[in-house]
Amino acid sequence: MPLINFDYNDLSSLLGEEVPKETLVERIPMIGADMHDTEGNSDEMSVEFFPNRPDMYCVEGIARSMRAFLGTEPGMKEYDVEETDIRVITDPSVATVRPYILCAAVFDMNIDDHFIKSLMELQEKLHMTIGRKRSKLAIGVHDLDRVTPPFEYRAVRPGDLRFVPLASDEEMDLSEILIRHEKGRAYAHLLEGKSRYPVITDADGNVLSFPPVINGTLTTVTTETKNIFVDVTGIDEKAVKSALDIVVTAMAERGGSIGSVIMEGKGFEHRSPDLSPSSWSISASECSDFLGREISPEETAEALRRMGMDAMAEGDTVFAEVPSTRPDIMHKVDLYEDVAIGYGFERFGGTHSMTQTTGSLMAETMVSESMRDVMTGLGFTEAVTLTLSSEKDEFGISGIEEKELVMIRNPITEDHTCLRASLFPSLMRILRRNKHRDLPQKIFETGDVISDCRKRRHLCGVVMDSKSSFTESKSYMEAVLRETGMKYELAHCTDRTFIPGRGAAVTVEGRRIGSFGEVSPEVIEGFEITHPVMMLEIDLQWFADSREGGVI
Q: Is 242 left (phi over 0), alpha (psi -120 to 50) or beta?
């Protein structure tokens, strides 16, 4: 989630009143955030916001939202937009490169270091989130007084234009920037395969921006800048508009006056930015049912006003005006979420379930958890191993009855050629790696195996000790079986895994579901182990399916 850094005094200035720091620490998380680094005497604060609120990726947006949320200025903040004669001409050549551009002007800015830091953070957060690392949109901010309108957005050949990019004092053409400049190398892949690159130039041919890579140093914004020109280019018109609206309204929170510019191209002409809100209507009763709490239409409208919207109730219907800086509002459910936040999470509670489903643990998970408790109670240590194995370990060394395996078409190593059919070889490999450690070693695993091309949950335990015996393995298996509550029978087992006469099979209702006993010396030597080993393995899926009433 994006982490926003700001100064407490700067936030207080934007709020228009000094809200105690403790109050902000308590209330900001209730709007959908997580506080960081707020302890001590420092005025520096950090807030981690949920990705669905890009309008709060800057201290200006936080201030606007908190004024409404705290009840100081509830409702939608409106911004005056004055018309200007600034024109931006879009050439058809950008259609196949980066087709969309929207621009705006902001006048009479009083820029300080706090604003510059906040603006740079906002740009980067928008680039990384809704901009998808600039692939979807890129933002340029320029000193308007250093260039001359009208501006042109066009695509040119890489060697046609030269300019000095930001963080450089050397003039380069576009192809040189992609090779030699740090930002050029970072974002060159976004223009890969393009024969022409997009640029924004002014009436005198000066380059403002080479989107989505870098701006020109000519229009660098400083504390001396008074008037700003903002461009947003990209491949998604809705995302481009959202980013522009968020940036210019953040500047307006600093006292700037927003000016609209004329966007002109082949077959279209309109003014930008358009900060018109979107209109919605919701049923207060449906919202209450969804949230699991009775909230009246008037309370619903008041909650939305605390979330920075204009809202009014007429009967059961609540009409809302959503600001253009809220691209996250895409469905009525999003408004329901805002109602919950504005109403106050702390006011929810009681015995009524807040979940929309009645989910529970799967039967195989419950059986597995139960068996983990049994095995740890018997002194075993749990292990988690790979589901990949090899035919050699599964059947060749282990002596397990051969089954149909799921093979890997292009295995990387000869040790990982198939999906395992048993947990036993995996645990033996752990004992092999730890054969020089102190004895006894008792490990177990509950995990998935593939039997007859079907996933099943198994339990396996192994003990490496100089005194391992059949009796010990039998006592462990009986402890496991007692936990299942199922009636079972023990039968003679002839698997090569066990020493003849010292292995047994477990059957339930005539079906074999597991085995236990002393591992044969041949198997032990095959795994390069030098001490006696006993094992038990059982198919837990049988009990899980039985618990669900399923048929195997």
A: alpha
Kindly give, in sequence order, each residue whose CB lies less than 8 Å from that of residue 494, ignoring residues fewer than 6 positions away.
500, 503
Alpha carbons 75 and 69: distance in angstroms, whole number = 9
3 state DSSP class of 543: helix
Which one-letter DSSP state was computed for residue 277?
P
Task: Give the H or E element holding residue 262.
Answer: strand 257-265
Confidence of residue 391 (pLDDT cuts 50, 70, 90): confident
Tell me, what's the pLDDT at 197?
97
Can you name the CATH fold of 278-347?
Answer: Phenylalanyl-tRNA Synthetase; Chain B, domain 1 (3.30.56)
Report helix, strand or coil for 153.
strand
Structure tokens at 175: 């192809």
Under CATH, what is the fold of the domain 3-69?
Phenylalanyl-tRNA Synthetase; Chain B, domain 1 (3.30.56)
- Residue 76's DSSP bridge partners are none
* CB proximity list for 105: less than 8 A, separation 6 or greater: 84, 86, 144, 227, 228, 229, 230, 258, 259, 260, 261
Confidence of residue 458 (pLDDT cuts 50, 70, 90): very high
Give the pLDDT confidence score for residue 500 in this predicted structure. Answer: 92
Cβ neighbors of 399 (< 8 A, separation 6 or more) are 495, 496, 497, 498, 520, 522, 523
Query: Under a CB-based contact definition with an 8 Å cutoff, are residues 139 and 120 in contact?
Result: no
- The pLDDT score that the predictor gives to residue 358 is 67
Candidates 514, 501, 409, 508; CA nearest to 451 is: 514
Question: What's the CATH code, domain 363-548?
Answer: 3.30.930.10
Name beta bridge partners: 275: none
User: Which residues face 459 on adjacent strands?
Assistant: 446, 538
**Residues forming beta bridges with residue 282, ordered by sequence position:** 318
- Would you tell me how many other CB atoms lie within 10 Å of the CB of residue 424? 28
In this prediction, residue 482 carries a pLDDT of 87
Residue 389 main-chain phi, psi, to 5 deg: -150, -160
Which range is least confidently modeled, 24-38, 54-68, 306-320?
A: 24-38
What is the distance between the alpha carbons of residues 200 and 441, in angstroms, rounded to a whole number? 70
* pLDDT tens, residue by residue, 94-132: 999 999 999 999 999 999 999 999 999 999 999 999 999
Residue 350 has pLDDT above 70, yes or no: no
- What region, left, alpha or beta, does residue 545 occupy, with left being phi > 0 and alpha being psi -120 to 50 degrees? alpha
Rounded Cα gap, residues 374 and 324, in angstroms: 58
Domain with CATH 3.30.56.10 in the chain: 3-69, 278-347
Query: At 407, which amino acid appears?
Result: M
Predicted local confidence at residue 129, as pLDDT:
93
Mean residue pLDDT across the chain = 91
CATH superfamily of 81-272: Phenylalanyl-trna Synthetase, Chain B, domain 3 (3.50.40.10)
Alpha-helical segments (H) within 256-314: 284-291, 297-306
Determine which helix (DSSP H) or strand (DSSP E) holds 279, and give its type and residue range: strand 278-283
| Mean pLDDT score, 146-160 | 97
Nearest to 107 by CA among 270, 263, 260: 260
